[in-house]
Design goal:
The chain is of the alpha+beta class and 258 residues long. It folds into 2 domains: 58 residues, Arc Repressor Mutant, subunit A; 169 residues, Beta-Lactamase (2-Layer Sandwich). Helix 1 packs across helix 2, helix 1 crosses helix 3 and helix 4 packs antiparallel against helix 8. May be an activator protein for the gylABX operon.
Length: 258
Amino acid sequence: MSVVNGESASHPTLIGSVQRALRLLEAVGAHPGGAPAKQLARETGLPLPTTYHLLRTLTHEGYLHREQGVFVLGTAAEAIGRAGAGRRQRAQISEALAVAGRELSAAVYFAVYREGEVEVVAVTDDPERPPVEEWVDFRTTAHAHAMGQCLLAQLDEASRKEHLARYPVQSITPFSVRTEDDLLHRLDTVRRGQVAYERQEYALGTVCAAIPIQVGAAAAALAISLPADELHRLRSVTDRLRKMAEATLTTLAFSISI
């Protein structure tokens, strides 16, 4: 029988105190209104002294909180739950984008503007339709790509001005907008048409489009990219993306952005 770091490969050493603490967390989580120590001891089958010791430790670490004689989940445990929920939601939207990408035969992206930065939340990963390689940080080049332009167009004037003060307009390719005035004129067009089209401004050989989506107060966008020789498909694919967003993608995007 092989042994790794002193443990049997088929019978790894289990830490009993960790197991007991996890059982207590599960028991507390089953009582939204909280439960007293004696009840938790009965439900977990733990000795009362052990239960008290673990409850004190978990409370000290922020995983539990005691109020009016009962124990409820604390901020640390809630943060773990939120992180897990966030991963599940991101997995859901990644799958939804993958479906859209296959139907559109395009790379598909979902991005939000959060805390002053462009954040690409999810992107398809199809070798048949690979996404644009991030050769210059998407956060610093929002002026040069469709999803960034779409997000900037949704900001109020003060937020947009502050963003451009941190990340000035600069040419990324020979096709990029060259001045802030050029960009602001472009953003006016994006706001009127509710779509941003970009042709080789961020990456040579690639054309992109992005549409704004409603996710509460957050600025968000869905985007697509195609090889430049498929420019003739860009508008029709964008229209199809908009219909998909209205049908299913916006709901998933909202759950991710909040």
